[in-house]
């Protein structure tokens, strides 16, 4: 019977400064607190994440967020069995803030320190929230990530493919900017798409016919830009209906690519491990109803169980980092104070490096 442990998780790899307390075993863990300070407002004026602003904001907030998570969980540092911190991949300044904070706490209290791969946090979340067993296929799809992972164990990941340039959330955000819609672009483009026709504009579906699980989304924003410019030169402005049609056509292109490549990824995952029964999605873009519905339909058709963790745990948070820490502590994997930040840190060492980095920094 595994021992019950209490873990402090710290996450600061992108634009959220987060801390959480988790208690339990790898089989059953409870989130005692999950505190997130988001920097969305600080970056809003710049149309993307500014690494220097992010690093400063993390440094300012990291101690506060840790303190708040301890208070919210009604525990003290003396109750903590290990400190798990995101050591990469991500923006170097942010990752360093978290690692320095965790090291300081570990050195001062003598508590074991565990460096965690941020992607492992996302990849193990369906276990934390839905208690699903290995193996499963995971699609991480957000503003900074887009990859298919076959998850066979807490340390066994195979990346089956991913974006070679922009992440889909990034494409939603850029499309919103081009069409004059508010950020974050995902929800505003989705809202606008409801009144548009998905076939109004023929937008590209790159790499669709290639027999692999890689994707490309950067050409879509260029296509949207051209289509918008054509409409504007014809009408002297962007009529409401044209904007809705562009949003619906864009959303339909992204949905087609993700669904098509998910179908391939399921086949590829099962070729490696025939026991894959679950397809899990995480990341902000998984909130999109059209995309989620299409993926659910694909699962129904291929007799696969569909799992999507609750939104607060799908996006960046520290509970997922604490959960990876719990797994590592249970198998005796801790780090010493020489732990360093790794801005690039692929989960799966054997897959070739993907070219794309996404607006939120290099992800693998
Ligand atoms: O996972 P997340 O909160 O942060 C990271 O990227 O790490 O994802 C944010 C991204 C943004 O690009 C946002 O536009 C997108 O997820 N997003 C959506 C929707 N809600 C958020 N994209 C499409 N449809 C949505 N409803
Ligand atoms: Zn993330």
Question: How many β-strands, per DSSP?
Answer: 10
Helix-strand makeup class:
alpha/beta
The hetero compounds bound to this protein are: 5'-O-[(R)-(carboxyoxy)(hydroxy)phosphoryl]adenosine, zinc ion
Instruction: Tell me the strand percentage band.
Output: 15-25%
Question: What does this protein structure show overall?
Answer:
This protein has helices spanning 40-44, 51-73, 92-109, 118-130, 168-178, 185-193, 218-235, 240-272, 289-301, 311-314, 319-330, and strands spanning 5-11, 16-24, 29-38, 82-88, 113-117, 136-141, 146-153, 156-162, 278-282, 305-307. It is an alpha/beta fold and 364 residues long. It has 2 domains: 5-125 and 313-330, 2-Layer Sandwich (Nucleotidyltransferase, domain 5); 134-312, Nucleotidyltransferase, domain 5 (2-Layer Sandwich). β7 and β8 (156-162) form a beta hairpin. The chain is globular, with a radius of gyration of 21 Å. Mean pLDDT is 92; it is low at 357-364. It binds 5'-O-[(R)-(carboxyoxy)(hydroxy)phosphoryl]adenosine and zinc ion. Zinc ion (ZN) is lined by residues 118, 122, 142, 144-145, 316.
Give the topology.
Layout: E1 5-11, E2 16-24, E3 29-38, H1 40-44, H2 51-73, E4 82-88, H3 92-109, E5 113-117, H4 118-130, E6 136-141, E7 146-153, E8 156-162, H5 168-178, H6 185-193, H7 218-235, H8 240-272, E9 278-282, H9 289-301, E10 305-307, H10 311-314, H11 319-330
Helix pairs in contact: 2-3, 4-11, 5-6, 5-7, 5-8, 6-8, 7-8, 8-9
């Amino acid at each position: 019977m595994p021992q019950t442990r209490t873990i402090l998780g710290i996450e600061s790899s992108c634009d959220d400064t987060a801390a959480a307390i988790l208690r339990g075993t790898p089989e059953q863990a409870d989130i005692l607190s999950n505190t997130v300070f988001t920097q969305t407002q600080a970056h809003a004026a710049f149309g993307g994440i500014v690494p220097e602003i992010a690093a400063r904001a993390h440094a300012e907030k990291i101690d506060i967020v840790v303190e708040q998570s301890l208070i919210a969980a009604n525990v003290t540092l003396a109750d903590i069995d290990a400190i798990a911190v995101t050591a990469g991949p991500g923006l170097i300044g942010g990752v360093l803030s978290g690692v320095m904070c965790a090291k300081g706490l570990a050195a001062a209290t003598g508590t074991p320190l565990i460096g965690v791969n941020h992607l492992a946090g996302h990849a193990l979340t369906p276990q934390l929230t839905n208690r699903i067993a290995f193996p499963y296929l995971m699609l991480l799809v957000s503003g900074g990530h887009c990859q298919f992972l076959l998850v066979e164990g807490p340390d066994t990941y195979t990346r089956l493919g991913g974006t070679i340039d922009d992440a889909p959330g990034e494409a939603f955000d850029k499309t919103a900017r081009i069409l004059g819609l508010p950020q974050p672009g995902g929800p505003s483009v989705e809202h606008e798409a409801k009144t548009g026709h998905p076939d109004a504009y023929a937008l590209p579906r790159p790499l669709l016919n290639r027999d692999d699980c890689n994707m490309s989304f950067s050409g879509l924003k260029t296509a949207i830009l051209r289509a918008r410019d054509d409409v504007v030169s014809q009408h002297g402005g962007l009529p409401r209906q044209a904007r809705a049609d562009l949003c619906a056509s864009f959303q339909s292109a992204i949905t087609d690519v993700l669904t098509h490549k998910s179908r391939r990824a399921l086949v590829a995952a099962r070729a490696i491990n025939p026991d894959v029964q679950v397809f899990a999605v995480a990341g902000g873009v998984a909130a999109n109803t059209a995309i989620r519905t299409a993926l659910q339909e694909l699962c129904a058709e291929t007799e696969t169980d569909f799992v999507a963790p609750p939104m607060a745990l799908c996006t960046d948070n520290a509970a997922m980092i604490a959960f990876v820490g719990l797994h590592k502590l249970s198998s005796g994997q801790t780090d010493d104070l020489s732990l360093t930040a790794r801005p690039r840190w692929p989960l799966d060492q054997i897959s070739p490096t993907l070219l794309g980095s996404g607006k939120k920094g290099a992800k693998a």
